[in-house]
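INFO batch 0412 | record 1 of 1 | parsing
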Amino acid sequence: MSRGYFITFEGLDGSGKTTQLRLLEASLLADGRNIVTLRQPGGTALGDRIRGVLLDSSTESALGPISPEAELALMFADRAQAVAQVIRPALAASSIVLCDRYTDSSEAYQGGGRQLGSERVLALHAALCGDLQPDLTLLLLPPLAGSLARARRRNERHTRTRGTDENRFERESDEFYQRIYATYREIAVREPKRVVCLESDAPIDTIHDQIRLLVAERLAASE
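INFO prediction complete | emitting tokens
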């Protein structure tokens, strides 16, 4: 590949996207591929600080409520830094970039969940990220109720056992998540060439096999 290949993983927390990213990373490394992985928010020193503000449920008790607009701005501050510091250099070096969340998350969570609208999110993406689009987005969209239950159980467990708390979004209402889920579906319909929607609640290994074969086909076509 003269240019690298950019793959993003999307979905609600509890959808299995992070697990599938790690499995794909291991598979590609075993094939001798040069892989760069990151998550959003996070992935840079600045991004990790922003992540703490955005996801820690104690943030609002310490700082006061974060407005939807401020939340969106912080998400894009993180993303712009990751694009400049990590993603574009990795693609220029012909690496495969695996990113846990990207602008689709902002469109779903802030555009849909916070009801700021897609147009505002996409305009910020064009202005701040140079409109850099993934080559492939793997959208894991199993049934909503199961994803939410898994995410809330996981974060409660992490709070008890590790002392980490990234529960700020998980405390939102089911209606908030229904809007996110619907927006993800709209993105998949709008961009069928880029976004592959995996709606099955199949076992982890089964979904990994589907992803591995799909990615192999896409990489072969790009070379």
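INFO post-check: The mean pLDDT is 91.
INFO record closed
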